[in-house]
Amino acid sequence: MTFDFIKSPSAAAVNRAAAESRADWLIITDENFETDCEIMGILESFISEKNAVAVTFRITPDDSGANYDPATLKTGYIKERAFAADREIFLAVGGFDEMLSEKGCFELSARLKTRGDIYYCPFAVAKRLNPPDEKQKYIKGLADDIFLAYKYGSKEDAARAKKAFQNAVKNPIHFESVRKDLVKEYRAHFGKVSHFSKFRRQNPDLFSKTDLRLSPFEAADRGVYPADETDFAPLISVVIRTHERKEILRRTLTCLRNQIYKNFQIVVAEDGKNTAEQMIKTDFADLNIKYFATGGNVGRGRAGNLGIEKADGEYIAFLDDDDYYYADFLSAFVSFFSKNPGCDLAICSGMRYETDILSREPYEFTVGKTYPIRFDRINLMDMCVKCRIPMPCAVFKKELYEKLGGMHENIGGDEDWFMWLKFLKIRKRASKNAPDIPRALSLFGYPADREKRAQREKVYAEYDKIMLSDDSLVFTVTADEIKEWENAVKADALHLKNIGAAQSFMSSLNPMGCKAIKYADGETLTLTAMQINKYYYRLMSEYLK
């Protein structure tokens, strides 16, 4: 397999160089990216395992928010000009559209996908030399929306894109001189429209096969978070609980092969019979896995606690057998703990998708609406009302478990919520309330079927009553902290009323009572989780009047 590097400021120059090349694959970047020769060996190994037409790179220091399948590494599109492409296929679909700017890679991706799959390679790195020009991205992106509507859409699509541009001129994002530059760009776009209209006449076959739509999974954006490289390299134990679902587990273990950070151990806790050990030994001998089965069913909470006890790592992370980490999960947390050595608990955002299992062997499932789970505020009151730490969205020091214990062992759901509440008693975090890493680093499913979802929530509501009534969930809080809670709830209530969502919000919760907390300035109180929970509903009912 041979490669040619093409580093050029313009799409036209890339197309010319591609036509002159005789290599099998092209490594294409613009002048703002830097790669090294090692990337060829990484790509050759990666491409040999995949039936790829193009491979997009991980960008440092702040990877784009483009989504991808954490297990297969398939992605819907190339977001920036830092990728490799099969030269023959690149030329066969026409290369870059030289009239497009900000969305040129996206549109090329749609044509490339008529010939095969695009993959994200987390090990192939392109270093960004300078931050992108956000103002130009904004202006050119609006213009490209018009051009794409002319190239692939209807007259109505073009009219909507023009209207969006005109509205942006009236109410633009506040960049310096942006309105003047928007007007200039809008006037200039008229001279390019005929180029895009010709495409469907001159390329009828390619036009009919090209689909600009992304799946719900691909369209979701993970957000951006700069993770610095570090010499800090602690052992992290990833605890996975499973129960007679080896094919489902197989896919989750596959995503761990894709981790950028390599000093980790996997602890597989099978609740019940030994059904997955042979598959793990045969198919995942390359991973550091410690497997055990409990024999009889001990429950989700007990299986999780046993997994922590058997873990060798200084840090612990959880991943259920049908959840996934993106390739930068462990590396982002290691970078965070390196910069914040005093912290013993860190929280990231996650991505949730609606799904239904079609078959367990082979494992097949649907992917529906996909959206980020981002909590801007995670305080004790919020946590006593609804768990704001999804299980695959946190890493903690094992010593927290050793001091406080772990999951609740007598309930069949939200057993991890109990653990997070206990950890909040003494945890040391870098941020008082905000998530530590705002980027979505994990992916987890939720029933798409409404009846299944409602039944699950009904069952979990009973578990929550048991958990929040546990006598061990006692917290020492000050009057000032309670005032902060009150102000936060008041602000939430005002926002809900302003957007007309107060009723729907309250109906999504499960009140367990409504009771005030009396306190005096300067006082320190001892409160149970249930008392805090009931005070929240007292406050919300008052503020929503």
The geometry reads as globular
Content of β-strand: 15-25%
Average pLDDT figure: 93
Indicate the radius of gyration in whole angstroms: 26 Å
Question: How many E-type strands?
Answer: 20
Contiguous runs where pLDDT drops below 50 for at least 5 residues: none
Q: What structural category characterises the helix and strand content?
A: alpha/beta
The largest β sheet comes out as: 9 strands, mixed
Folded structure, characterized:
The chain is globular. It contains 21 helices and 20 strands. The strands form four sheets. Strands 8, 9, 10, 11, 12, 13, 16, 17 and 18 form a nine-stranded mixed sheet that branches. Strands 1, 2, 3, 4, 5, 6 and 7 form a seven-stranded mixed sheet that branches. The termini are far apart. The mean pLDDT is 93. Helix 5 packs antiparallel against helix 6. Helix content is 42%, strand content 21%. The longest helix has 20 residues, at 479-498. Helix 1 (11-20) links the parallel strand 1 (3-7) and strand 2 (25-29). The relative contact order is 0.08. It is α/β, with parallel strands linked by helices and 545 residues long.
Short structural description:
This protein has 545 residues and is α/β, with parallel strands linked by helices. The strands form 4 sheets. Strands 8, 9, 10, 11, 12, 13, 16, 17 and 18 form a 9-stranded mixed β-sheet that branches. Strands 1, 2, 3, 4, 5, 6 and 7 form a 7-stranded mixed β-sheet that branches. Strands 14-15 form a two-stranded antiparallel ribbon. Strand 8 (236-242), helix 11 and strand 9 form a beta-alpha-beta unit.
